[in-house]
């Protein structure tokens, strides 16, 4: 198969990263400090915003003491956590126990290094030095984000194992299984974007969305990534590793003071990072929406792209808060079923469909032929699934009819001297119903249904009721 030469030249132009790596060392430090400060301020605001929004949904007031409208509440909570006593449990593996919060927090900061805040070709002036609005970029920037995000999960797993306690261990194992289940579907969603953009560079992916955002071209990939990013950062309704209902607090049960604060910080920074990745891959990155860009030519130049990127980021953070305030926590078996039986098959089938469309376009097929081929393949798959469900339904119906005709096996729960549950196909004997309260009162008073004919109740010491009648 020969690729389209014009398309290949376009991809090579998009992967031009020569504008990166030319900044002096002090400017690199300034941009790194800006990324760190941007993340910290966004986290502090997100915590207060989440508490305010959830309080509004539940008709409460929310934080309103520290600062105007309670905006400094998260900062006060951070200071309080740092001043609390730092405990180390006796049975913990101290080296890993102390290292785990660091492993969870640092990769969350590192992933933000390749997120573009503005166009690579539009340089801004910082202290008289022209530079791009991005710390750096790589030809495999998205693989770098995936690798760093995977390392962050090890902090949670090691925290659960090193605590030497049962509930943290269960939380760490849940986090490990959840990471494996949801990163496969996330990687397939990323691959669809790579096929359409022709690059793994974040700046090139945003440049490729000049005409249409990928949320329009790849809606299934966007929906899959939204679900997987919620599961990846352990947020409600997928917050199983720290489920307080059955694990007390999960992997961070044995942590206190600054170590606990670092786990909380890592969760919110990961939430900001996955939201920024979603903005970059599917929502046009720093680009302003179409109506504004058509009217205002300078909307995507200068410092304005930073504003559009921040607004999109806050919109996705509100989506996280909205999910927490509306959906209940799912069961763990439902979490695994969604990851392995729904998201992974759908993402793989969708990836094959996207690859087919791209291959047909590279072979210069027109749009009508692509729709015809893809539509025929989809109809064939739907027809095969319908036939399979039809035969499966007939088989299940025949099994149900055979089960109805079969005599229930006799079962004595006390045959072994102690009660045991029935096996499949066995039924418990009917339990005698207790007489209604009115009937018991009539029996006790000598009414209809009593064994003795007297009108007074029998006492435990009476043998024939004569003493009770005064005889």
UniProtKB/TrEMBL annotation:
Recorded catalytic activity of this chain's protein: a quinone + NADH + 5 H(+)(in) = a quinol + NAD(+) + 4 H(+)(out)
Biased composition (Basic and acidic residues): 459-471
Record InterPro entries: NADH_UbQ_OxRdtase_su1/FPO (IPR001694), NADH_UbQ_OxRdtase_su1_CS (IPR018086)
UniProt biased composition (Gly residues): 446-456
Topology of this chain in the membrane: Multi-pass membrane protein
Start-end of Pro residues biased regions: 419-431
Region (Disordered): 401-471
Keywords: Cell membrane, Membrane, NAD, Oxidoreductase, Quinone, Translocase, Transmembrane, Transmembrane helix, Ubiquinone
GO MF, any single term: NADH dehydrogenase (quinone) (non-electrogenic) activity
Annotated Pfam families: NADHdh
EC number: 7.1.1.-
Subcellular location: Cell membrane; Membrane
Segments traversing the membrane: 25-49, 96-118, 138-161, 182-206, 212-231, 268-286, 306-326, 338-358, 370-391
Its biological purpose: NDH-1 shuttles electrons from NADH, via FMN and iron-sulfur (Fe-S) centers, to quinones in the respiratory chain. The immediate electron acceptor for the enzyme in this species is believed to be ubiquinone. Couples the redox reaction to proton translocation (for every two electrons transferred, four hydrogen ions are translocated across the cytoplasmic membrane), and thus conserves the redox energy in a proton gradient. This subunit may bind ubiquinone.
Subunit-structure text: NDH-1 is composed of 14 different subunits. Subunits NuoA, H, J, K, L, M, N constitute the membrane sector of the complex.
Family stated for the protein in its record: Belongs to the complex I subunit 1 family.
Name the record gives this protein: NADH-quinone oxidoreductase subunit H
Gene of this entry: nuoH
